[in-house]
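Q: For a teaching session next week I want to show students how multiple molecules come together into a single three-dimensional assembly. I've collected the sequence lines for a complex. Could you give me the predicted structure tokens for the whole thing so I can convert them for display?
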Amino acid sequence: MTDPSASGPVLTLSEAAEATGGRVVGDGRARFRRIVPVFDAGPEDMALLADRRYAPDLKECGGAALLASETLAGLEDGPVDRLVVRDPHEALVTLLALLHPASEEDWGVHPSAVIHPEAVVHGEAAVGPHAVIGAGSTLGRGVRVGASCVIGERVEIGEGTILFPNVTVYADAVLGRRVIVHAGSRIGVDGFGYAVVDGAHAKVPQVGGCVIEDDVEIGANCAIDRGSIGSTRIGAGSKLDNLVHIGHNVVVGRGSLVVAQVGVAGSTRMGDGVVVGGQAGIVGHLKIGAGARIGAQAGVISDVEPGQTVSGYPARDHRTYLKAMARVMRLGEVVKRLERIERSLAAAVPGSSPGDSEP
Amino acid sequence: MTDPSASGPVLTLSEAAEATGGRVVGDGRARFRRIVPVFDAGPEDMALLADRRYAPDLKECGGAALLASETLAGLEDGPVDRLVVRDPHEALVTLLALLHPASEEDWGVHPSAVIHPEAVVHGEAAVGPHAVIGAGSTLGRGVRVGASCVIGERVEIGEGTILFPNVTVYADAVLGRRVIVHAGSRIGVDGFGYAVVDGAHAKVPQVGGCVIEDDVEIGANCAIDRGSIGSTRIGAGSKLDNLVHIGHNVVVGRGSLVVAQVGVAGSTRMGDGVVVGGQAGIVGHLKIGAGARIGAQAGVISDVEPGQTVSGYPARDHRTYLKAMARVMRLGEVVKRLERIERSLAAAVPGSSPGDSEP
Amino acid sequence: MTDPSASGPVLTLSEAAEATGGRVVGDGRARFRRIVPVFDAGPEDMALLADRRYAPDLKECGGAALLASETLAGLEDGPVDRLVVRDPHEALVTLLALLHPASEEDWGVHPSAVIHPEAVVHGEAAVGPHAVIGAGSTLGRGVRVGASCVIGERVEIGEGTILFPNVTVYADAVLGRRVIVHAGSRIGVDGFGYAVVDGAHAKVPQVGGCVIEDDVEIGANCAIDRGSIGSTRIGAGSKLDNLVHIGHNVVVGRGSLVVAQVGVAGSTRMGDGVVVGGQAGIVGHLKIGAGARIGAQAGVISDVEPGQTVSGYPARDHRTYLKAMARVMRLGEVVKRLERIERSLAAAVPGSSPGDSEP
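A: Of course. Below is the structure for the complete assembly, covering every listed component.
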């Protein structure tokens, strides 16, 4: 495998401790160029141990240093030179930014891009090869539109927002500041709205807004509908994983996490800080309270209270659901007890009706 | 938020009534530029009330007028000037077309498009920037191919069909008239077909057709395979939501609705007028009868009768399934009754075997 | 429907038998241009019968010849001229390659492609219209990059690999030899990784690798994340269907099949020869043993042993799960037996406590 960072920056353990507010164990002069999983670490690497389940890998670890939480810092195996921090993932945010400074790739406004004369592109925005910017659209300072992105008419894109390649933004969408949209996502798509006219499905024009607030990140190949009337809205700071579907007029609250392949049907409104597990589905017109947690693959067909954790289909309180499923797996035992009782009863009380075949 | 329609057409209530065959309550001269949800309506807006669950919002509604069904027309709160119609969504089809006339954006055949000399593009078709049209392909009158679409060889696209940007159509696919394909969908993709040869998966060439009939709408980021041999077919007037997967040789009947993130595996044949709920999956080689309804997230592993409604995994009759799941949630009670019986029996019939631990 | 092969090669039954090692029944001079399903076959077609469920269609079959396995070769109806083979799908691999030779479309390096001066493109590689190749990337001999693909910086693409149109490959990804990536897939996407810093989700830079080994095929609109640190890896010879999500640091073993719309969360490691059914989900940090089979729509939340077959949510041993679900559907019967016992008991043992309402 190529190692893109082979010629990149190097950090010492002391420098890393200073940057993260962490504590050095052993030699602060230990040096590393990369941070990698324990089982991958070589002599120029710092190994990351953030989860106890990877502790057994320490035995084979060849890294120059170890990055670990207080809880895991005392383990015997592995590199003796260590950076101990409160939250290794938080430390990663800092350290990886130092080791992997942002790419210098900068197409400026590439001559092959097609920018409508009535579009406004800030002098410090970048537009990649073959991108298309529609009439009346506005790109703020520091915006980067990737190659082959297509931005419709009257789209607003705020400062510092990054669109990876091959993204489509439909007309009239609004993207805030520091938004990241990964490759192939579609923003402001027509929702799934039809009226039955003369026995056929007639398209209800989809004319509402699609608002992506500040600091949202959207994964690859997502589809986010515009409102039919009114708006679809993704709240500030929320993060969507890959292949997520957001129907028309949905509101995702602020600071929420929506894991891969989730689908949210039209007009459902979610509070702030909601977490939706992978492949979960939420039907339309529901209210999901702030801080609710929806389990992976859950099928939500009724409102969820703030702070509630739900699982399964139809989604119910998580513990109740797991308990019920555990009982289901032991149903055979129930049936056996039933048969035993029926036999006892038949023996003790002649004439009492015996059971049928095993359910 | 930008308001794209701020300078658009204005309608009076009387004009709206005439266009829809509705009935005016109050002042027919009330004017509106937009139709919006009740909770969003301002003084230039008509508020839409199509669902009783939004009736409480009427108290705060600042709209100039209300669009409501006969059933909801008599509610006391909200705007007194009203348009009362049989089906508000049908009225929306008419009114939104008047308020939001089709965009005038027209790239013609953009000079950056790459059109093979052996392709035939009708004089009234439009091809967006950076689109590619392969050899032997034909675009009918009024076809609009969005920016960065890639159309393979020998593709036929019928009159009035619209491809949003970044769509791919593989070789040999046939799209009928007035088809709409949203951004990022892939039509005529190789199916998932392999034969085990010498212990490895050898690709079976995928050479069948992919036929999208008239008036079909396909959402964003869908993937529709071509036939392996034979054809995949989406019947006339059917509508697919975002992120739908249609395997090779599948037939979707006419006038069907396939909600977001549904997957249909190879060679399954669906009748007309089928409705498939979001995230449902249907395995291969099944027959789904006309008018069947498949619940959201259902996992269908056997044929479904015409008109049948199924739910759950493995999918079964909807009512039976819900009843069974309700019983599951009360299994704890069954176990308690069992224990009670065992105790009674043990007391009454000394020597009868008592139950074990709770299942 | 257009028939792309109307003017293509023609085979006789004898030629087909020679190419496949099969056995001719009847006239070896029977000729065909296409291989199609039994119900589609016309006078220039060979009908394929690989599955007994399509045997009834033989009655109406108008094909010139039949391709069948030994087991099905003796059926009475249908064409009398037959090619009998051990494995019809294996025969298809050979015969379809003869009937449908690879398309001659060859853009070479299209003048509209944007290739960074520091990219290395082999003289026998093809780059489609509007494709973009980033700095430091390398395309081997016979590589074909489709129209509007965007290849980031420092990407390696091995000999004979084919990217269909509108694909995105992020920086630093490595694709082996003879890989096929279908339209709209995204390789090397940033994973879903955040640390909570000052109460908000801060992005953990995603700097790991994404390695697609030799002979992998990836369907349309998939999203495959790069490692956060360390690498994501798709093992040699594995095949992914459409709309699959692979999280960061996931390892898919060699020779595996991952059906449409599957999602695998971060850091899960799968052995070789695993089969994952459509829409199944696997949570993060698990080990899936070699040869495991995961049922369609299964939700896997714990490790799976090598060779184990699991189903349902939470996924369990397949047979156990189906048995439990069958019992669930007959829970009503259990309750009735319980009531009967309670009545007998109440009659026989006065004072014993009767049951409550039906659970």
